[in-house]
Structure to design on (159 residues):
């Protein structure tokens, strides 16, 4: 017998859709203390947010690396650079979220359209059956009346 493991809870560092986030600081406002923000981060961050790591495997320690190609590391005291870096990160996160939201919206719309199409198809089928039944009854009734009239005329002429 295999035992199923309960699903892993999401990382507490990732905000949920139900959480209310504070608005971004004003451009003229001082930037938050970077050291305090780094200290508040969880000690380990998964490499990719789209997949859950295998809990049975050891995770590599989180490391900060500069991935800007051949460009030198930024000057840590440059306020404008930090603002630009913050803006770039916000834009990247928003782009990733928009991609996920778009795919979820497309899926939801497709599911709702399929349900609506099925509902409309059932209604149309029922209405067509009712109309067809009424038309058939009227046709049969008219044909019977015409046959009765013919029979009466033949009997009246024959006597």
């Amino acid at each position: 017998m295999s035992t199923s493991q309960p699903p892993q809870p999401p990382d507490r560092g990732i905000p949920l859709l139900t959480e209310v986030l504070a608005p971004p600081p004003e451009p003229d406002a001082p930037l938050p203390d970077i050291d305090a923000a780094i200290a508040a981060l969880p000690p380990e961050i998964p490499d990719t947010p789209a997949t859950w790591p295998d809990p049975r495997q050891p995770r590599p320690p989180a490391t900060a690396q500069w991935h800007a190609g051949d460009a030198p590391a930024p000057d840590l005291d440059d306020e404008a650079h930090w603002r630009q870096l913050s803006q770039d990160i916000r834009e990247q996160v928003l782009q990733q979220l928009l991609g996920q939201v778009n795919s979820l919206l497309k899926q939801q719309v497709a599911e709702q359209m399929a349900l609506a199409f099925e509902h409309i198809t059932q209604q149309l089928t029922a209405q067509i059956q009712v109309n067809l039944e009424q038309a058939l009854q009227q046709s049969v009734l008219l044909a019977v009346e015409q046959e009765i009239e013919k029979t009466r005329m033949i009997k009246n002429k024959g006597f």
